[in-house]
Design a protein that fits this description.
The protein is built from 9 helices and 12 strands. The chain is of the alpha+beta class and 273 residues long. Bound molecules: zinc ion. Zinc ion binds next to loops.
Length: 273
């Protein structure tokens, strides 16, 4: 074990005042990051949660009877079930604090031959945590380039191993979350475009764009690349595109999005046959 290059004090200093963007970048729904009671991005409910200090990322959640509160690091632990050091590492990474001289990041160990659901969920989480999430890294992945998406667009890039994607493959990593931002699974896409999902998707999806703008066009489509193009290329970010991760999931995800956000309309974009 080597000593960590950063501490809660040093990372907290750099994070001061930037918590909303940091937390949103790590996958917490920006709509929850307001000083107003609402559903908790970690444990749901209707109005148990508020985010009342962007300086230190302070939140309060009454947890349905078991109150929990703290700073931005504590919020990440509450929402994603991370340990304190996982939260510290994720924030440091999102601030670029450990990428100036990036240490060789060990690829998470691949699942064993017959991985159980919790093992796959853990693998999904480790992979997402280890992924680089900046535009340069993600946008230069061969799949992203081929699809004409030169930005991160909510995805990451990391090494992953699996039956479909191959061993220790340089993958685009697309997070699959609940509508309140909890990571359920990841879809790994290798340079050839082969896709493999780790973790259990449930009703998960990936919401891209500005969910605070109900007048923007809202669509649900199958894959990450189409959604990223629609949202950021066609509409310059003034749109919401939700990745359903499969044709058979379009309807279910569209219904969940309509119920959760209540935009005027949600359009399902089917792939051209
Ligand atoms: Zn909560």
């Amino acid at each position: 074990m080597t000593a960590p290059a950063f501490t809660f004090a040093s990372v907290g200093d750099r994070a001061r005042g930037r918590w909303p963007e940091i937390l949103a970048g790590l996958g917490i729904d920006p709509a929850a990051l307001r000083n107003r009671h609402g559903p908790c991005p970690g444990c749901g409910g209707r109005d148990r949660f508020r985010f009342d200090d962007r300086e230190i990322g302070r939140f309060y959640c009454n947890g349905g009877g078991e109150p929990v509160s703290g700073d931005g690091f504590a919020l990440l632990q509450h929402v994603f079930d991370w340990t304190a050091s996982e939260a510290l590492q994720a924030v440091a990474q999102s601030l670029g604090m450990d990428s100036t001289h990036p240490p060789p990041k060990p690829a998470p160990r691949p699942p064993t031959k017959a991985p159980g659901p919790s093992r796959l969920a853990a693998y999904a989480r480790e992979t997402w945590l280890a992924a680089r999430k900046d535009d340069a890294a993600v946008g230069s992945h061969p799949y992203a380039r081929r699809k004409g998406v030169p930005w991160a667009a909510g995805a990451g890039r990391a090494r992953a191993s699996g039956r479909i994607i191959g061993r220790d493959s340089d993958c685009l990593i697309v997070p699959i979350r609940t509508l309140v931002g909890k990571l359920l699974a990841v879809q790994a896409i290798n340079p050839d475009g082969a896709k493999q999902t780790f973790g259990s998707m449930g009703d998960g999806c990936l919401v891209l764009g500005n969910t605070l703008d109900a007048r923007a066009p809202w669509i649900v489509a199958e894959g990450w690349a189409d959604c990223a193009s629609f949202c950021f290329h066609l509409h310059r970010g003034n749109a919401v595109a939700v990745v359903a991760f499969g044709a058979s999931r379009l309807q279910k995800v569209a219904e969940a999005v309509a119920a959760h956000y209540a935009p005027p309309r949600v359009t399902i974009m089917e792939d051209a046959p």
